[in-house]
TrEMBL record:
Transmembrane segments: none annotated. Residues 1-87 form the B12-binding N-terminal domain. One of its GO terms (biological process) is tetrahydrofolate metabolic process. It comes from Acetobacterium paludosum. Pfam families: B12-binding, B12-binding_2. Residues 87-208 form the B12-binding domain. This is Cobalamin-binding protein. The lineage of its organism: Bacteria, Bacillati, Bacillota, Clostridia, Eubacteriales. It comes from the Bacteria. One of its GO terms (cellular component) is cytosol.
């Protein structure tokens, strides 16, 4: 089994104590950080499919998520870019009612690498909290909202519209598995991205 396949299997099996060493070994063996990350993301899809099929349950999803997060920690310093030129502050969070944070954390990591000063509000963030964070922080140029559940899509809409009502010129970017470019436009977001890498590209475009 290649090192990357090993990482993938460990995430799927939720072996959080072994994952950091396995990711480091994959890096040492010459695997690219992006390829290791892609493998872990693919593992989470497998985990999601098994959950949908009733083969595993919430606790298994949780330990797989914990393993992925530990793996990402090892990749973070490797993937960090040159952040000497700040593009401004970005407020980011997963919207109200939604506890998924792996995708959000990846977007935080990529936007940080792209040069944004990130303020991460965490998960289950009420619309007003995004507004408060814009008020509390200096030089906020972007608000980024993540949503992973179809049931929290209305909360995504509320977050965008509450921020826009308070700060009509503030740029807002949204994303997450159930979000489409059409939905993003419909709820008044300025930008949408399907993954963390393209979120960084889109975010830079929005504040240019
Ligand atoms: Co949840 N869960 N979960 N879950 N979970 C999903 C999302 C689900 C698709 C699984 C399934 O049924 N196949 C399903 C949602 C179905 C739907 O709404 N259509 C689901 C469900 C149903 C639930 C619960 C309701 C289960 C229950 O309790 N019965 C519950 C809800 C809890 C809540 O939030 N209120 C629940 C709970 C959980 C755990 C807590 C156990 C755990 C999350 C732990 C954590 O995040 N720390 C969990 C997990 C792990 C998953 C899956 C398996 C993996 C999610 C993940 O981390 N993916 C997921 C299945 C799946 O995704 N296939 C599933 C990897 C991550 C890198 O991808 O987050 O999509 P993702 O992020 C991507 C893009 O979406 C994008 O970039 C990232 C990658 O580059 N992106 C953005 C994300 N945010 C962005 C913002 C942007 C731009 C791009 O701009 C701002």
């Amino acid at each position: 089994m290649s090192k990357i396949e090993e990482v993938k299997a460990l995430v799927e099996a939720g072996k959080s104590k072994k994952i950091a060493a396995a990711v480091q070994e994959a890096l040492d063996a010459g695997d690219k950080a992006q390829d290791i990350l892609d493998a872990m993301v693919a593992s989470m899809s497998v985990v999601g499919d098994k959950f949908s099929a009733g083969e595993i349950f919430v606790p298994e999803m949780l330990i797989a998520a914990k393993s992925m997060s530990k793996g990402v920690e090892v990749l973070k310093p490797v993937m960090a870019g040159d952040t000497s030129n700040s593009l401004g502050t970005c407020i980011m969070g997963t919207v109200a009612g939604d506890l998924h944070d792996i995708g959000k954390n990846l977007v935080v990591m990529m936007l940080e690498s792209a040069g944004f000063d990130m303020v991460d509000l965490g998960v289950d963030v009420a619309a007003e909290k995004f507004v408060q964070a814009v008020k509390d922080n200096d030089n906020v140029v972007l608000v980024a909202c993540s949503g992973l559940l179809t049931t929290t899509m209305p909360a995504l809409k509320e977050a965008v519209q509450t921020v826009k009502a308070a700060f009509p010129d503030m740029k807002v970017i949204v994303g997450g598995a159930p979000v489409t470019p059409e939905y993003a436009a419909e709820i008044g977001a300025d930008g949408y991205a399907p993954d963390a890498g393209s979120a960084a590209v889109k975010a830079k475009e929005l504040v240019a």
